[in-house]
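Tutorial, part two.
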Amino acid sequence: MQHHRTPIRSMFCSLPRTLAVLPLVLAASLAGAQQDPSAFPLDSVGYLNEELPRMEAAIAAKDRSFFSGAMARTVQFSERWGFKVKANPDLAAYPMCTSAVMDYVVVGMCRLTPSEECEPGLASRFDANVQRCREVAARK
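Running the prediction step on this input gives:
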């Protein structure tokens, strides 16, 4: 009898790799876009406002495939802004927004399938960062 990897087992095996690679992918792929940094919080909030309901629907539907597309969209968003502080120091004033966007996919995956690789407290930090980003965007 052969043992086949179940989708959940496969996801658990790939989750640590995905969690470890996400910051590297973002850091390696981010070109310093030339945009007005003061527009970043509002753009981040717009991105998250569009993505979060999709993520909630995917979690409710137990749709793991959603997260590969979400990862690609997150990388595209971050490329537009030269996301990492080193790549675009003008965004250093908005760490709550960069963190919220970077943590979005990981938080969603951990909510869908909690595992020991999921950092305790990440979801609450994510929620706080989203809220602070929204507050900063509202003042712009």
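The chain has a mean pLDDT of 82. In part three we will examine how such features are distributed along the chain.
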